[in-house]
Design a protein that fits this description.
Shape: globular
Strand content: 35-45%
Number of strands: 10
Distance between the termini: 49 Å
Helix content: 10-25%
Radius of gyration: 17 Å
Oligomer: single chain
Length: 180
């Protein structure tokens, strides 16, 4: 039992380190003369699919230069939404939900579609596995090419008979965690 308690403590430390590693993306201090924080939020809601419960634990919307976003248009600005997709599964032996990482798509309030990581178009949902352990997994993700007028974005997974959707609002006041 002592060994198991030690292992759980180790997993908690590993998850805390993974969260800290990406903390700059959600910190207003990361802003500088070229990066502007537009939104910092902790969206509500969760969805269940395939034995997993998914939620977006944090989100940050930034205005960044095209060159930083890796686009070739140069000189302009674009919006990029960073978010942490958290999953929980009560079966400790269950693997990380790689399907969500690879095949998550999105649609914004204007009807624009965003491809998954595998198809990676100009507008895409991409990311990396940040932490995986028993019961939980965190994926650090971002949406490239986000339309400036979008009021919300809905993340969607629909593959092999398993589906879920989560919505992230992109409007509000600074006090509500909305645009600054």
């Amino acid at each position: 039992i002592t060994s198991l308690a030690g292992q759980f403590a180790s997993w908690r430390e590993q998850r805390a380190a993974a969260i800290e590693a990406s903390a700059d993306l959600y910190d207003p201090a990361w802003a500088n003369e070229s990066r502007e924080l537009l939104l910092l939020a902790e969206p509500d809601g969760e969805a269940s699919a395939g034995g997993y419960t998914f939620s977006v634990s944090r989100a940050a919307l930034w205005s960044i230069p095209d060159r930083e976003a890796g686009t070739s248009s140069g000189g302009g600005r674009c919006r990029r939404l960073y978010f942490t997709l958290h999953s929980f599964n009560p079966r400790f032996w269950a693997d990380a939900p790689y399907g969500a990482l690879n095949y998550l798509t999105a649609t914004d309030s204007l009807g624009n579609g965003y491809t998954n990581r595998q198809e990676r178009g100009e507008r895409a949902v991409v990311g990396n596995l940040a932490y995986t352990g028993p019961f939980a997994c965190d994926m650090e993700m971002w949406i490239e090419g986000l339309a400036p007028e979008a009021e919300w974005i809905e993340l969607t997974y629909d593959r092999l008979g398993v589906s879920f959707a989560l919505r992230i609002p992109l409007t509000g006041t600074a006090e509500e965690g909305g645009p600054r």
